[in-house]
Amino acid sequence: MSITSSLTSATLCRSLVSPKALACSNAFPSNRLSNPFESSKLCLTANPKKSIALVQGIRCHAMQVETREAFTAGKKFQLSDVIEGQQFDREMLSAIFHVAREMEKIEKSSSQSEILKGYLMATLFYEPSTRTRLSFESAMKRLGGEVLTTENAREFSSAAKGETLEGIPSCQLNYCQYTCYSNIVVMRHFESGAARKAAATANIPVINAGDGPGEHPTQALLDVYTIQSEIGKLDDISVALVGDLANGRTVRSLAYLLAKFVSPEIVKMKDDIKDYLTSNGVEWEESLDLMEVASKCDVVYQTRIQRERFGDRLDLYEAACGKYIVDEALLGVMQKNAVIMHPLPRLNEITADVDADPRAAFFRQAKNGLFIRMALLKLLLVGCKVIDVNLRFRTTGSVIKLRAQLQLGEIANSTT
Amino acid sequence: MSITSSLTSATLCRSLVSPKALACSNAFPSNRLSNPFESSKLCLTANPKKSIALVQGIRCHAMQVETREAFTAGKKFQLSDVIEGQQFDREMLSAIFHVAREMEKIEKSSSQSEILKGYLMATLFYEPSTRTRLSFESAMKRLGGEVLTTENAREFSSAAKGETLEGIPSCQLNYCQYTCYSNIVVMRHFESGAARKAAATANIPVINAGDGPGEHPTQALLDVYTIQSEIGKLDDISVALVGDLANGRTVRSLAYLLAKFVSPEIVKMKDDIKDYLTSNGVEWEESLDLMEVASKCDVVYQTRIQRERFGDRLDLYEAACGKYIVDEALLGVMQKNAVIMHPLPRLNEITADVDADPRAAFFRQAKNGLFIRMALLKLLLVGCKVIDVNLRFRTTGSVIKLRAQLQLGEIANSTT
Amino acid sequence: MSITSSLTSATLCRSLVSPKALACSNAFPSNRLSNPFESSKLCLTANPKKSIALVQGIRCHAMQVETREAFTAGKKFQLSDVIEGQQFDREMLSAIFHVAREMEKIEKSSSQSEILKGYLMATLFYEPSTRTRLSFESAMKRLGGEVLTTENAREFSSAAKGETLEGIPSCQLNYCQYTCYSNIVVMRHFESGAARKAAATANIPVINAGDGPGEHPTQALLDVYTIQSEIGKLDDISVALVGDLANGRTVRSLAYLLAKFVSPEIVKMKDDIKDYLTSNGVEWEESLDLMEVASKCDVVYQTRIQRERFGDRLDLYEAACGKYIVDEALLGVMQKNAVIMHPLPRLNEITADVDADPRAAFFRQAKNGLFIRMALLKLLLVGCKVIDVNLRFRTTGSVIKLRAQLQLGEIANSTT
């Protein structure tokens, strides 16, 4: 078992340039968190539920960022919030994936788990997403917890009454009121940064289930978990991203992990991601030839062209849509052990005849979302003893390599 | 107790012309299912929950249609899907009604049932229907199960993102993804045939809770169960259907059972149902005189004229609406043991003074929906031992008679 | 402990003029309820769940108003419905608040309560209100009960199919059908009086969670409970209502308790409330100077100007909005032990810097809503033994005083 089995691209990238992240694997367990991301709060509370009550006279506020002493045997490892993919270092990912594997066993056994009995999760969806919501709610219920649900808080609640994020200081948001009702909040919002603002004012854990064009960290986690499960490793692999790379939140989050890009010119990956990859030493390549790329990659990550992102520009939508299709012909050139992934829902960008191929991993990928979310809920609400994940953490010294091509493809003018 | 106490019209009609259905009651239990309906899958799995996990590399797929050996003492009787009324033969109905009566006892006792503890049901409603949804969810919770709910998946989820049924092969639908999250799916859809397609791709049970102008089998089951409970038999009875016979899904499903029609000319029963009844030897009659018909029938089944089915044609709606009202005058001519049924919600097609009459059966009918749905959930998720329903199945030799008038009424030109 | 710690304004006002209410505290426990409000039904049923089944042949109907023998030691105190603030006399409020304090302990303990295990609550929201709905659902789940939820029944259900309250006799409404599915209904409706009509036809308890411009009794209860908790008493206090006094349902309900009004002229308190207060001997004052009023009051109750109540008249909205802001300057003139309340959600009528002040009570107020709703659910579904609240009821003889200024301010022409 190698520690390299669990890392995000961001961590990965940074690990190539940052002494902190590299030191992390060498100097464990004396490592201290000096994470610059304000959302990467870790705490070692004995019982997080106890700390929910509003302090007399003090407005509800985020838990203080505590110095982490995690990963010392016998100590408890507990997440505070899940806001963005970048907050996770390799140790944390390793711990999360370890718990996710435990969750697979729980889900497969017929017995009802009561790990989260007595805990309430509120799903605050200001933008509808049935799949993501049901995945979280199923995860909570599989662990014996209860759920308060909103299917479309934007239309149905105070957002319709004039409550927006624009121009309002985060501390003035009313999200923290929901902390009265539940022990944890899963939040989907139409504005980038909403989850971070909510986490800053809430005194219970907040999970970002997607914030507009921003982040979707649980999707990124399940994608990485799936690659690890399917390919067996995360280093020395190449991934082809296909589809709407400019607008897709999912693929943007995962892009940190990528080496090869394939997308219609209309919806190319935006320059910020490219710059990020380049500046972090990740080799990447932009291509218009899906067949050629697919023949060389370990993972073909297909995505949907999202009609709703194009507004009235149906001409652009139709031009982009269906340009790159994963079908039996593509399967023919793919390597034997490569896999096809897709965040779902798909339309016709993957043809039906692909489904029966063992390399079609997208339904297994969806199921992995359940396990990752079960793991996160456990780690946010009750934590786990480090003893559980000790073995994984003790593996040190592995060399992280991402061999990616740094041949920059021609960059078409981005039309979006 | 007579086996004739449990049969749908479809079965009934067919039993008059088909040796199979008649043989069924004589040659039991050596009977083998040779059901032509692809949705009538029966299986004898030991634990259906165990089989939910996606097989490695194989897309999720429907369970194979197995040859049924049901109704052999000691064997388990378990439904696979509930897609359409026609899938049920008399034995299955008898078993379902037997379990429904058990459910009445469970619901009336204060003790919390744990029959379905640990099971998750997802209600996927692509078209809103609060009553039907709450009835299913109540049924699941009364049995100790848990629920994942969507109030309007069409507006809120991938349907809004372009996912439709048109032109997409059923195997390419993404319903099966939901099987990751739950152990059973209750589905309402705006397109006819949607539930059948979903069942074909899902590896967990699917219940059709109404698919557009198509079927609404659980409503048909509860209607028949109510007639059986109220009248005490299903043979030799006559039923008057009143209201929107052209557009009402409920009444179309039940029409297979009918003998007499009363409806405004604007919204007469469509020809396909009439032809079906005629070709199956069911006597039926179309009438414009509700009083005369009601005086002779065992059941007056009133329905709502659905405004939304008329679109802009408010003139037609208003002409049809309120033409036939069930009121105290009608009660005056009805037989002492006849009953008034209505699928609810009602507007003013039944006046308030009717409610207090013992013959007003519509609230009891609604409650029966709870029992039927509890029974179906039990039979789909855990099944029941045939020993339970053995006595009912042993009753054989009863003669099924449907004495209906074959005086064809004048058929007005259908305007819809 | 003083009995005056628990009374609504309505009761309070009436207690100044009505012998009944005053006698209530003196002549206890021989007091008999002779409540003129039809919704103030009290019953002493042994097990309310048992009485849910529809009586054969009789439409579902409201429980009979029984003569109350409550508050006799050893007897059970059980509410029947919660329809309007006026239904509660001081004893009932005292009992409710007593149970609410028990609920605080349950909520703070980690152990899962099973007080309402096996009970089902349906939230029928014909108008969306995420906060109120989640508060009720959280309350039910904290007590071990289960929830059936509708986020927007108006849009999604039969209301969209033509079912309205206009012109339909209450007995013809179909709410009682929902009694098939649950043990208690929490109802939010867009029409005033809807909850009362539903309660009249339902044979299970109904809680009014807001009915259009009508009542919102649980909000009024939690407001009074908060004032009691924060100020320590309810007599001899003065409350400043600020904001949209004409349109806000919350503040109208609470207005019965008020002494001082501050509101922009555009949205003054309507005359009916003023007349009510005057005719009941409550001194009140209308002012345009928030600073002056705030310096003298025990409670500053700020409310939101609701944009949606103004329709197209954005000019009026903008004129009214932001005219009176609670900020640090206001905190500077407020008394040391006074508190700021707000029903939430707030926009910018309370600035963010106020949140950290101990006098900012609005988040504690929201949490109190959870305790009040837990208490009501307990009292409606299983009741409590009077022995529990005996001590409070034995306190008699307290003198209720509401010293309020009777200097009528100038009344601007109401534009709404």
UniProtKB/TrEMBL annotation, chains A, B, C:
GO molecular function, one term: aspartate carbamoyltransferase activity
Catalytic reaction list: carbamoyl phosphate + L-aspartate = N-carbamoyl-L-aspartate + phosphate + H(+)
Domain Aspartate/ornithine carbamoyltransferase carbamoyl-P binding: 81-228
Biological process per Gene Ontology, one example term: 'de novo' pyrimidine nucleobase biosynthetic process
InterPro entries with a match to the protein in the record: Asp/Orn_carbamoyltranf_P-bd (IPR006132), Asp/Orn_carbamoylTrfase (IPR006130), Asp/Orn_carbamoylTrfase_sf (IPR036901), Asp_carbamoyltransf (IPR002082), Asp_carbamoyltransf_Asp/Orn-bd (IPR006131)
Domain annotation Aspartate/ornithine carbamoyltransferase Asp/Orn-binding: ranges: 236-379
EC category name: transferase
A single Gene Ontology CC term: cytoplasm
SUPFAM superfamilies with a match to the protein in the record: Aspartate/ornithine carbamoyltransferase
Keywords (A to Z) from UniProt: Pyrimidine biosynthesis, Transferase
Pathway: Pyrimidine metabolism; UMP biosynthesis via de novo pathway; (S)-dihydroorotate from bicarbonate: step 2/3
EC number(s) from the headed UniProt entry: 2.1.3.2
Assembly and oligomerization: Homotrimer.
Function: Catalyzes the condensation of carbamoyl phosphate and aspartate to form carbamoyl aspartate and inorganic phosphate, the committed step in the de novo pyrimidine nucleotide biosynthesis pathway.
Similarity-based family: Belongs to the aspartate/ornithine carbamoyltransferase superfamily. ATCase family.
Protein name: aspartate carbamoyltransferase
